[in-house]
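Morning F.,

Quick status update on the modeling queue. The single chain you submitted on Monday has been processed. Sequence for confirmation:
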Amino acid sequence: MVNSNIKIFSGQQTKYLTQKIVDSYGIPLGKTFMSTFSDGEYRPGYEETVRGKYVFIVQSTFQPTDNLFELLLMIDAARRASAYKVVAVIPYFGFARQDRKDKPRVAIGAKLVADILSAAGVDRVITMDLHADQIQGFFNVPVDHLYASAIFIPYIKNLGLENVAIASPDTGGTKRANAYAKFLKTEMVIGYKLREKANEVSEMKIIGNVEGKNVILVDDIVDTAGTLVKAANVLIEKGAKSVRAVITHAVLSGPAYERIENSKLTELIVSDTIPLKKESKKIKVLSVAGIFADVIKKVYNYQSISESFL
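Structure tokens below.
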């Protein structure tokens, strides 16, 4: 029997994932509309009642501003239509790389987005693999921070690789890589990179021994793939038998696809929090829909979600 008290809706750019989530949950996708004015201004809305309902709105904020603003408008529309609770499900949380002031006179974009979501009236946020854990503290509402390791670790195990080493492409990702290494009971190595400007790595060094090992790079975001490809090439030069990468959010902008195709990576494994712009023989996509469907069900039923964390 379909539960009529819960409604799951989708932003325009995340319907590919939301449809998989509702299929896994076992309820139909909520009906929405999008009207657009001639100057490009858009107005989303709901084609069914949400009065007194538990409303979940799924929207990744890649290409961040349009998708983020659509999410904000949908939250506001649900609030004004008397929804009981409004939960923002943000598989990929855009602006997360702006989590601190790393130089003078810059914004902390992640905090600003958290404040805007709260101002719009969100009651809860469900997201995955934030760029920095402390972003949860930017919110004054509950945040369920999920991890794609729940799908990646079984995949890694099924590869049946021997002599595995987990690697972080930079020092900022050591905590994430260490968690994978502990769970898989493997060694860990670290990449140390020097940047002359954003999105461009000038030099990379590897801390640790990779001779004869099957290395798996772990990270949260792959954008232009400069760091990833540089790390893979250096690891092979240092004697690694093979290099794979497990990365949650496939932003893949600019020359990323070309770099991956021409790199020494055996495989890039990503989730579907962001849709691929094009297919690649080197890219394997695993779905996180089941994880989100399970957590949505538990949140609605006021059940613990701690067992969902791997």
